[in-house]
Each structure stands twice: as structure tokens, then as C-alpha cells.
Write a structure and sequence with these properties.
Elements (H helix, E strand, L loop, with lengths): L2 H15 L2 H10 L7 H21 L2 H24 L1
Helix pairs in contact: 1-4, 2-4, 3-4
Length: about 80
């Protein structure tokens, strides 16, 4: 595996893991008051676009990292809609 691929995997891992504490906090508290619905709608759509872009390029780090991020972002978005 070359340096570029490793860098992509590292970037995808860091940006994906960064959503886990927010999801855990929402699951524990059911509180989404401080989360912007508009931001998460736009962000989630953007992540979907990144997944599709990764698929078109055939780049696993883009696909895997953004697919997991999409699931986490959708979780936050759904809870924002339910508890917001």
C-alpha cells in the first residue's frame, strides 16, 4: 500500500470517528437542541455525494470512510428530526 492510500485511510478514519461521540451523546441524552437541522441535511447530502464520487473513481478509502460517516450523519439527522 502506498503513502497516498495510507493517507486516505487515515483521513477517512479520523473524520469518521469524529462523529461517534456525538451519536453516543444523543443516544444517551436524547438531546439534539444544539444541532442545526439545516446543516445536517446539507452535510448528509454532501457525504452521499462523496460516497458516489468514490464509487465512480473506484477509491475504497473514499467509499468506506464516507459510507460509515453517512450512516453516522444519518443517525444524527434522524434523531434531530425525532427529538428536535
Amino acid at each position: 500500500m502506498n503513502f497516498t492510500a495510507l493517507l486516505g485511510i487515515l483521513a477517512a478514519t479520523c473524520t469518521t470517528i469524529s462523529f461517534v461521540p456525538q451519536v453516543v451523546q444523543i443516544l444517551k441524552t436524547r438531546n439534539t437542541k444544539g444541532i442545526s437541522l439545516g446543516m445536517y441535511i446539507i452535510f448528509t447530502f454532501g457525504i452521499l455525494c462523496w460516497v458516489l464520487y468514490g464509487i465512480f473513481l473506484g477509491e475504497a478509502p473514499l467509499i468506506i470512510g464516507n459510507a460509515i460517516t453517512l450512516v453516522l450523519a444519518l443517525t444524527i439527522l434522524i434523531f434531530k428530526i425525532i427529538y428536535g
